[in-house]
Amino acid sequence: MSNHLALIEKTQSLIAAGDIAGAESALTELADAEGDRALMVVLDQLAPKDILAVMREYDPSRESVVNLLVTPEQFARAIVIEKRYKDLTHTHLRGMVNSIIFREDADPVAFLTAVGDLEGGSEAMANYFAEKWARIEAFARTGTFDTVEEDGEMLSEQALLGSAYASPRIDLEEVADQDWMELAWRMRYETPDLFTETLLVLRAQARAHHLGTEDEEEAGEEDVRVETSDTDRGRSTPAAREDDEESAI
């Protein structure tokens, strides 16, 4: 166990220093030397932010031993704090989610249920679907991802809840792409509460974005000049750190 404690400290130090590849390599060496069970013991001792740091660096060209072994609960605790990275593209988030929820031995429902059980879970999933909001709205209303049938109307929250247990219009096999369509299908028909909450968060984000755009246009009309030199040097947008617990982010 003392060796494990040393490895945990080493992993945390490497992540804090930004050497994510080195941290993952150290964890991989442990799995190779002592087996998957030993690695799982160590993962259970690592803080969610440290597990997240490794999971986010998902590379589709190779398998990550951490992504292969992380449990639904560890995954959920990590994913709800992913927003601290302030990645507006959510590219890392989508790659990480897909690689873990759709790994060969995984039960997607177990992972989605764990995410739904935590505060911030629906927000994390809304970030995952951020660029597909219209398609998700269409899916909620019509049971298909085709936005052609959309007329701009959205289901009320009550109607959304009422439709949560409707029978699928399309089979899982038709959307089994191990990507956002399959995830949306599984959420709607296998974890409907999480699907509904996620869609409500997506709507709130869309409203906030719309209001923000309007505010920007009004500010532009007033010819407000902004000093950008500090921003260019990264001073105005520091890394997301609320306390020492987030030092690795």
Question: Helices and strands in order, then pairings?
Answer:
Layout (H helix, E strand, L loop, with lengths): L1 H15 L3 H15 L1 H10 L2 H9 L8 H5 L2 H8 L11 H11 L6 H9 L4 H8 L4 H10 L14 H6 L9 H4 L4 H11 L1 H30 L7 H4 L17
Quick description:
With 249 residues, this protein is an all-alpha fold. It contains 15 helices and no strands. The longest helix is centred in the last third of the chain and has 30 residues, at 192-221.
Question: Key features?
Answer:
15 helices, mainly alpha, 2 domains, 249 residues, single chain, disordered C terminus
Which value, in Å, is the CA radius of gyration?
21 Å
Tell me the β content. under 5%
Provide the residue-averaged pLDDT: 85
What's the overall geometry?
A: elongated
- Weakly predicted, low-confidence segments: 221-248
Number of strands: 0
What oligomeric state do these chains adopt? single chain
Number of domains: 2
What class would the helix/strand composition place it in?
mainly alpha
Major sheet: none
Helical residues, percent = 55-70%
Q: Give the termini distance in whole angstroms.
A: 27 Å
Number of helices: 15
Give, in order, the helices and strands: HHHHHHHHHHHHHHH
